[in-house]
Amino acid sequence: MTEPLSLRDAALASKAWPYEEARKLLKRYPNGAPEKGYVLFETGYGPSGLPHIGTFNEVLRTTMVRNAFHALSDIPTRLIAFSDDMDGLRKVPDNVPNGDMLREHLGKPLTQIPDPFGCHESFAHHNNATLRAFLDSFGFEYEFASSTDYYRGGKFDDALRNVLRHYQAIMDIMLPTLRKERQLTYSPILPISQKSGIVLQVPVEVVGAEAGIVRFEDEGETIEQSILSGGAKLQWKVDWAMRWVALGVDYEMAGKDLIDSVTQSSKIARALGARPPEGFNYEMFLDENGEKISKSKGNGLSLEQWLTYGPQESLAFYAYREPKKAKSLHMGVIPRAVDEYWQFRGNYAGQAIEQRLGNPVHHIHNGQPPEGTLPVTFGLLLNLVGVMGEAQPEQVWAYLQNYVPDASPETHPDLDALIGHALAYHRDFVAPTLKRRAPTENEAAALRQLDAELADLPADATAEDIQNIVYAIGKEEHYGFAELRDWFKALYQTLLGADQGPRMGSFIALYGIENSRKLIGEALYA
Questions:
Q1: Considering the entire predicted model, what is its pTM?
Q2: Residues 164/206, Cβ–Cβ less than 8 Å
């Protein structure tokens, strides 16, 4: 008899993407812990806007890789959530107040711009606080780091001197990637003007690498200024590489739109004498029309919207699946994500270790998914709410108690939360689209037979008993359904007002035979 695999052995062989990523880190340090004593993961955040669903996905996916690495190695790890808050504000976001005030400070570091919300010392401090509250609410384990604190506190000074020592090598990497006009003005160093406080985009000349002195023009005057301790910041791709080197970052993932940045920053990191981090490029989300989601367009789905209509676990499930495949992110994907999450969660307990490691819930819950299953699917809940119209949670529970003995919010708290999501989803998204059509002559005849057979069933008939009746009617040749799916589609369109729907036996058992007969009557005689 074959001995079951240990968790570590199974993880070493698992094809689940977090384990594949973790094995890159294992190969990076074949002789054990690096000199710094830990493996460092990093995620980046640009605080010129509020945290969004992409921020959640990047921290979540990085955490999944970190957890997978813990299954493979005893080397300690850290995760830094790094805020690029020394960046100059390039444009005024559409979704914040006091835009005119912000416009007066364009070009200044985000930590030097007043908070348009009026509650923090700067715009960056407000967004950083929002980020931290956002990450904390999901229980992420991380360390927050501020670009401003690192630059001004001198933590980057040695790395900045190193950049000046390799200034020409960096220029040789970057200039071929730029347009000819941009080549004339490009500099990897962005001095902070002592006159205006603006992050300057001007050519610079290195005067003294060890002293950190550069020369540049500011408002017509030639200035010599130290870039150390907050006197300057670096251009984006150079800044990213410098940070990798200064902090010793071992792993950072990025969106497909940053592939070029990863390539150039990796070259710069090597020029600075270090090895770039491991990582992978995930695909971007698309809207329901297949277009790239854009904050300025407002297309796609926000984090707040998803969490209104589905639980956090369903979003984590959606983020886990196929990260290198472009996926649509819109309201219509939520119900399926909810039900698939619960399906995988229900399967977990009975799976062998190899299967568990490939199960999304293993990574969502760090190997300890909660026990329990749902007595009904989210899709079925939505159909129930759909025929109820305006409903309160207690009314939904009244139906559920006929279907699930002794069911209550106390015995099924996950289901209680889903009822709230279902009511919101139906109210905002489903109800405006529902439109029942009248049945055709043959469909009406089939509905009358269904009504008659339901009338003959006992009140405690099972969902399977009802489903058998539905199947049998759809197969009767004289009703003219070419395929069973045509009969089911007719039921959905005439009874529920939708093109898709639930397993009808389960729905009728949940809604109740008498209530279902009333639905049929409304369809026949409306």
A1: 0.90
A2: yes
Angle, alpha carbons 89-94-99 (nearest 5°): 65
Question: Could you tell me the end-to-end alpha-carbon distance of the chain, in angstroms, rounded to an integer?
Answer: 66
CA distances to 78, 240, 316, 318, 399 from 376, rounded to whole Å, are 40, 48, 21, 20, 12
Q: Which fold has domain 7-152?
A: Rossmann fold (3.40.50)
Beta strands (DSSP E) in 73-131 are 77-83
Going by C-alpha positions, the residue among 126, 87, 122, 84 that lies closest to residue 101 is 122
Q: Which class would CATH give 441-525?
A: mainly alpha
Interatomic CA distance for residues 473 and 448, integer angstroms: 10
Place of tokens 């760090």: 366
SS3 category, 43: strand
pLDDT averaged per 10 residues, the chain (length 526): 75 95 96 95 87 86 97 97 93 85 92 92 92 89 96 97 98 96 94 96 96 96 96 97 98 94 98 97 81 58 88 95 90 94 96 96 96 91 89 92 86 95 93 91 95 92 94 92 93 92 90 92 88
